[in-house]
Design goal:
alpha+beta; Alpha-Beta Plaits; 2 domains; four-stranded antiparallel β-sheet; 3 helices; about 50% helix; transmembrane helix
Length: about 160
């Protein structure tokens, strides 16, 4: 009779520890990704509302060409890009040139970049620092593929000659 109680208690402990392990390994990271995605969506909605408001107010988004590089300087940008990634322990897997546009008053070079890191937070911190670089760039698409991989579409601008 006593052995039955020991077996029942052991089984309950095993089941409870299994649920706890599942919760900490699967549910909590999923909640973090969901929170990050929701905050990103909210930020993009706010940016879209501000853009819509500024265009409705008739504001012109003029770019001072003195701040733009005269040449695309792609190579030096990606050297700094990879150095910044190394600081955050983010690895650049691939850089693929998507297209080159010369239709407007600016030259635009678009790239798709695959990143990997040990955690989502490292990638998020790297993207935050990337947006602070002294270079006119536009991140048009950012997506987390798994907990440790991300993909982003990046456009670099330079002045026309």
């Amino acid at each position: 009779m006593r052995q039955t109680y020991i077996v029942i208690v052991a089984a309950v402990l095993i089941v409870c520890s299994g649920f706890g392990f599942f919760y900490f390994m699967k549910i909590i990271p999923l909640k973090e990704n969901l929170t990050f995605t929701q905050s990103s969506v909210q930020n993009y909605k706010e940016m879209a509302a501000l853009t819509k408001k500024s265009s409705a107010d008739g504001e012109v988004n003029a770019i001072n060409e003195e701040t733009l590089p005269k040449q695309p300087e792609i190579e030096s940008f990606f050297v700094k890009f990879q150095a910044q990634a190394a600081v955050h322990q983010v690895y650049v897997d691939t850089i693929t040139r998507v297209n080159r546009s010369q239709n407007s008053s600016l030259n635009a070079n678009s790239y798709t970049i695959q990143l990997s890191a040990k955690s989502t937070q490292e990638i998020t911190d790297f993207i935050g620092d990337l947006e602070k670089m002294e270079r006119i760039l536009n991140i048009t698409k950012f997506s987390m593929q798994t907990g440790s991989q991300a993909s982003l579409s990046l456009t670099l601008y330079s002045a026309k000659k």
